[in-house]
Amino acid sequence: MSWWDYGYQIAGMANRTTLVDNNTWNNSHIALVGKAMSSTEEKAYEIMRNLGVDYVLVIFGGMIGYSGDDINKFLWMVRIAEGEHPNDIKESRYFTPQGEFRVDSAGSPVLLNCLMYKMCYYRFGEVQHSYNTPGGYDRTRNVEIGNKNVKFTHLEEAYTTEHWLVRIYK
């Protein structure tokens, strides 16, 4: 499972079946993936089990300063999920009371504990880029992350590339 942007590449390069891709016409299927990414691990795991998901892939740019990552795309996942699942997903819950989308300690608790956040920032609190930045400093958003103690109940890290751009969980 991944966001639809990567469906063709995963299918073509890795010879794996994907749930959604750039040609998915079924908005409810894209919304279900968005709902999983925006939910807690427990709720997301139930969705993934029902869909027969073995692996989940995210693109994370916080290590190298890549701004086209899934955290920066995340609100679209939330919006699409809310369109199909308005009783479960509300975009406003991912913002601070002041209306800001933040991944630091001032971020919304719903955001700081959703599956997407956890998969991107798992073990990232242990990473210190240089002596003058704290552990868990996100180079894309230029902040110290708010949840450095990410733990998983159902998922485990399967693979992370050298610069953490691609992260895969099973």
UniProtKB/TrEMBL annotation:
<feature type="domain" description="STT3/PglB/AglB core">
    <location>
        <begin position="1"/>
        <end position="56"/>
    </location>
</feature>
<comment type="similarity">
    <text>Belongs to the STT3 family.</text>
</comment>
<keyword id="KW-0479">Metal-binding</keyword>
<dbReference type="InterPro" id="IPR003674">
    <property type="entry name" value="Oligo_trans_STT3"/>
</dbReference>
<dbReference type="GO" id="GO:0046872">
    <property type="term" value="F:metal ion binding"/>
</dbReference>
<keyword id="KW-1133">Transmembrane helix</keyword>
<dbReference type="GO" id="GO:0043687">
    <property type="term" value="P:post-translational protein modification"/>
</dbReference>
<keyword id="KW-0808">Transferase</keyword>
<dbReference type="GO" id="GO:0012505">
    <property type="term" value="C:endomembrane system"/>
</dbReference>
<keyword id="KW-0472">Membrane</keyword>
<dbReference type="GO" id="GO:0016020">
    <property type="term" value="C:membrane"/>
</dbReference>
<comment type="pathway">
    <text>Protein modification; protein glycosylation.</text>
</comment>
<keyword id="KW-0464">Manganese</keyword>
<dbReference type="InterPro" id="IPR048999">
    <property type="entry name" value="STT3-PglB_core"/>
</dbReference>
<protein>
    <recommendedName>
        <fullName>STT3/PglB/AglB core domain-containing protein</fullName>
    </recommendedName>
</protein>
<keyword id="KW-0328">Glycosyltransferase</keyword>
<dbReference type="GO" id="GO:0004579">
    <property type="term" value="F:dolichyl-diphosphooligosaccharide-protein glycotransferase activity"/>
</dbReference>
<keyword id="KW-0812">Transmembrane</keyword>
<keyword id="KW-0460">Magnesium</keyword>
<dbReference type="Pfam" id="PF21436">
    <property type="entry name" value="STT3-PglB_core"/>
</dbReference>
<dbReference type="GO" id="GO:0018279">
    <property type="term" value="P:protein N-linked glycosylation via asparagine"/>
</dbReference>
